[in-house]
Inverse folding.
């Protein structure tokens, strides 16, 4: 099983600031990494797939980077609706998710 | 593509949890598509449970110790999850999911979620 470790567990920022969320894989997964946004009482939504491709309708303030074992989701200027839990997920083998990073308003 | 889940919100310990995901907008036997179940345990993250390929081939999370059955019903355009011998540790929100405009095993389409409690 490929283990994904996200950091930090919680990130406290203000609207307008830049957020950088990290995801590290226990072995190389190439570019097979996705990011999801999850808000309470809603289903998760896909933000990024293939490391850096934005899903349909995702604003361009969201970007993804990395390869192999180290990946980053960057939100360039936080909007109030961006505060949520973010999960990374690998699709290189049987799917696994990271434990999540809670992005909260400072 | 849209996914609509159905199934009970309460299951007794040691019984079988059964959920169904009805698919609209695509035939579940469409070539190349996977149909997946994922859950969120209380206060924890997301956990992949199992998937079925359009051919009926399946794979499941080893941590669930062979308690999982996932199946397709092309006549109803549905796929289903059965989880046997449930305990309180299986209390979770269960989601069905698939890829429509994203690569296989990434999930841009989700069901609405079913909150399942295991309790007597």
């Amino acid at each position: 099983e490929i283990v994904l470790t996200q950091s930090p567990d919680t990130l406290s920022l203000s609207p307008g600031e830049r957020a950088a969320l990290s995801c590290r894989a226990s072995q190389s997964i190439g570019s097979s990494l996705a990011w999801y946004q999850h808000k309470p009482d809603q289903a998760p939504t896909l933000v990024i797939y293939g490391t850096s491709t934005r899903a349909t309708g995702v604003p361009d303030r969201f970007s993804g980077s990395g390869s192999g074992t180290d990946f980053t989701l960057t939100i360039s200027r936080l909007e109030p609706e961006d505060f949520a839990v973010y999960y990374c997920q690998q699709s290189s083998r049987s799917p696994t998710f990271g434990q999540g990073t809670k992005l909260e308003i400072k | 593509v849209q996914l609509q889940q159905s199934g009970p919100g309460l299951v007794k310990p040691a019984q079988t949890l059964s959920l169904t995901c009805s698919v609209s907008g695509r035939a579940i036997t469409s070539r190349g598509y996977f149909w997946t179940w994922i859950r969120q345990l209380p206060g924890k993250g997301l956990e992949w449970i199992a998937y079925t390929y359009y051919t009926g081939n399946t794979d499941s999370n080893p941590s669930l110790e062979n308690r999982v059955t996932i199946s397709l019903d092309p006549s109803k355009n549905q796929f289903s999850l059965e989880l046997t011998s449930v305990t309180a540790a299986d209390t979770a929100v269960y989601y069905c999911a698939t890829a429509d405009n994203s690569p296989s095993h990434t999930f841009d389409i989700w069901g609405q979620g079913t909150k399942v409690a295991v309790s007597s």
Q: What stands out?
A: The mean pLDDT of chain B is 95. Chain B has no helices and eleven strands. The first strand of chain B starts at residue 2 and ends at 6. The radius of gyration of chain B is 13 Å.
